[in-house]
Amino acid sequence: MFDLHPHASQPVRRAPTHLDFKLGRNGKGLPPSLEANHDDYLVELTGDDDPANAKSWPIRRKLRTAVVLGFDTLIASWGSSVYSAAVQPVGKEFHVGTVVSLLGLTLYICGFATGPLAFAPLSELYGRKLPVTGACFVFTCFMFAAATAKDFQTLMLTRFFAGVFASCPLAVVGGAFSDLFGNETRGIAIAAFSSLVFIGPFISPIAGAFITQSYLGWRWTEYITGIMGALAFVLDLFIMEETYERTLLQRRAGYYRTETQNFAIHHISEVYIFCVPFHVSEVMRHYEQAPNMEEVVDVKDLFNKHLSLPLKLLFLEPIVFLITLYTAFIYGILYLFLEAYPIVFAEKRGINEAVATLPYIGLVIGVLVGSGIVIAFEPRYNRKLKANNNIPVPEQRLLPMMLGAVLFPVGLFWFAWTGNYPDIHWIAPTLSGIMTGAGILTIFLQALNYIIDAYLVVAASAIAANTFLRSFFGAGFPLFATQMFNKLGVDWAGSLLGFLGIAFMPIPFLFYIYGERLRKHSSYAPTDFGKKKDDEENQDGTSGGVEERKGGEEVGEESGGSSTALDA
Q1: Residue 370 is part of a domain; what is its CATH number?
Q2: pLDDT > 70? residue 479
Q3: Name one GO molecular function term (predicted).
C-alpha cells in the first residue's frame, strides 16, 4: 500500500516528460512523472476482513443482498411464462393464430440468448449493481409497454426486449453469489438461486391463469409483472450493495485520489484502453515503456472472449457440445410443459383452465427436491476438493446428475401414460412432476457446474455457448408442443420425449468414466491446472486478461464449491 501523507522532508521529485505534445487550449504539457515506485500507489485488499471483500461481510448483510438478487431472478423467470396464460386471449384480441400468439413467449426467451452477451462483460467492467439495477428499470418499462400495447407487433417487440433485459440477473447473479459466498456455503446459495430460475416458470402460469380468467384480463399479467419489476428496481437501488471486489477497490482508489489530490493512486484494473485496431499500435507506442501496465482491453480481446471463443468451445469440445445439447433439451422440456399441462388437465380431463394449472405445483416440489439432492452432495464434493488441494474435481459433480438422468425419463413416461386417460385420477400425472422437476434441476445445475470445473479459465465462454443454444431450444419447443400432443396423443408424444431422455441418459455416466481422459486432450481444459498456456493461446481469448495470471490456487478457490453455475 501507499503512504497517504508522505513526510514533508521528502517532497515528491518530478522529472521532465519525454512526450512531445500539449494538452488543452492553453497548451499545457503533461505533468512530470513521479519517481516513486508504481506499486507504491496501488490500492488492494488490506486483508481477509477488508470490507471490499464481500465474503468477509456479516451473514445478515450478505443475505440482504442475496435475497434482493434472488427476487430479481424470480421476476426474470416469472416474466417468461406468465404470458402462457395469455396466449388464447391475445390471439382473439389481435386476430392471430395460436402459434403466432405463442411468439410472445418464444421471443422473450430469445431475449435470454442475446442479453448475456452484453451483461456478462458489463458486470466484469462496472460491477454487479449497475447492470442489474439499470436492466431492471428498462425491463419494467417494457413490461408496462407490453401491458398497454395497441397492436400485436408492439406486444411482440416489447416482450422481446423485456426478455433481453430480464436476462441480466440470470447472467450476473451467479457471479454476485460467488463474490458473497466461499466454497463451503456457495453450493447451497447457488442451488437456491437455481431453484428460483426454475420455480418462476412453473408458478407464474398458475397466477397468470387466474388473472386472465378473472375480470382483470390478460393485460394484467404484464401489469403485475411490471409492478414486481418496479419493486425489484427500488430494492436494487436502496437495499442491494455492490459485491464485486474490483469495483469496490476502484471506488476506494477514486476516493483516495480525491482526498489526497494524488492521481497516481490507482487499482490494478483501472488502466483500460478501449480502441479500434488501427489505433492500437499508435497508443501502444506511447505506453510501451510502461512496465506496470496491468490491463489492455481492445476490440480483438472482446471479440475473442465473448463471441469467437464460445463458438469454438461449442463445436470443437465434445464435453461442451454434449452437455450443452443435453441441457438445451432439458430447457426445452421446461417450456414445452407450459403447453402440455393444459392439454392434459384442461382439454383431456375437462378441468377449469385456471384450476388445470395447479398441477404445476408437482413440478415446483420436484425442483425443491432436486435442490435438496444437490445440497446433500455438497459436503462430499467439498471433502474431495480439500483432498485435491482445492483444485476442482469435475467428475465428482456428475453424481447428482446421474441420479437426475434416471429420474427425468421416468417422470416423462409416468406423465405420458397416466395423463392420457381421464379415468386415472389427476393426482397420478401431477405426482410425476416431482420426478421430472427433480431431474430437471439436478441435470441442469450439475451439468453447468461440471463445465465450470472442467473449463476453469474459459468457463464464462463455455457457459455463454450453453446459454445461447439452450435459449433457442426453450424458445422453439412450445411452438410445436400443441401439434405434437394432438397428433401423436399424450401417451406417445410424452413417450417420444422419454425415449430422448433415455438417449441422453448415458452422458453423465460416460463423462464420469472418460471425462478426465478427454480433458487431457483438450487445449482449453487441462487436467494439470498449474501449467501455463503459451502466448498464442492467451491471445486467442483463453485467459480473459488478468484472470489467467491469478495462478492455479487462486482460481481453484474461485471455482470450488458450486461456483458460478449460472453466471451467463
Answers
A1: 1.20.1250.20
A2: yes
A3: transmembrane transporter activity
Give me the phi and psi of 453, to 5 degrees please.
-70, -35
In a domain, 414, yes or no: yes
Q: Is the pTM of this model over 0.85?
A: no
Cβ neighbours of residue 70 closer than 8 Å, sequence gap 6 or more: 173, 192, 193, 196
Q: What is the pLDDT of residues 3-41, one digit of tens each?
A: 444 444 444 444 444 545 555 666 666 666 666 676 778
Number of domains in the chain: 1
- Banded model confidence at residue 401, pLDDT cuts 50, 70, 90: very high
Instruction: Name the amino acid, one letter, at 153.
Output: Q
Contact 98, 91 (CB under 8 A): yes
Q: Are 366 and 441 in contact (CB under 8 A)?
A: yes
Using alpha carbons, list the distances in angstroms from residue 283 to 203, 272, 280.
54, 12, 5
Rounded distance, CA 102 to CA 342, Å?
A: 14
| Residue 402 in domain | yes
CB 561 within 8 Å of CB 183:
yes
The answer to whether residues 143 and 522 touch, using CB atoms and an 8 Å cutoff, is: no
The Cα–Cα gap between 154 and 142 comes to: 10
- 436 lies in which domain range? 309-515
Quick one: which of 461, 459, 535 has its CA closest to 302? 461
Asked if 180 and 57 count as a contact pair (C-beta separation under 8 A), the reply is yes
Q: CA separation (Å) from 524 to 159, 317, 494, 528?
A: 37, 9, 38, 11
Bigger pLDDT: 455 or 502?
Answer: 502
Q: Using CA atoms, how far apart are residues 21 and 383, in angstroms rounded to an integer?
A: 60
pLDDT higher than threshold 50 for residue 169: yes
CA–CA distance from 174 to each of 55, 197, 414, 460, 485 (Å)? 14, 11, 33, 11, 36
* Highest-pLDDT range among 50-64, 132-146, 248-262, 466-480: 132-146
Helices 318-342 and 427-454 meet at what angle, rounded to 10? 160
Residue 349 located in a structural domain? yes
Q: Grid coordinates representing 29? A: 504539457
Examine residue 501 and state whether it is found in any structural domain, yes or no. Answer: yes
399: nearest Cα among 513, 315, 309? 513
- Express as a percent the part of the chain with pLDDT over 70: 79
User: What gap in Å lies between CA 243 and CA 177, rounded to an integer?
Assistant: 9
**112/160 Cα distance (integer angstroms):** 9
- pLDDT above 80: residue 324: yes
Q: How far apart are CA 329 and CA 332, in angstroms?
A: 5
- The Cα-based distances of 246 to 42, 125, 230, 266, 543 in angstroms read 13, 9, 28, 11, 17
Cα–Cα nearest to 388, from 179, 553, 547, 565: 553
Q: Are strands 28-29 and 266-267 parallel, antiparallel or unpaired?
A: unpaired
What average pLDDT is seen over the chain? 82
Please say if the pLDDT value at position 488 is more than 80: yes
Buried b (16+ CB within 10 A) or exposed e, 424-437: eebeebbbbbbbbb
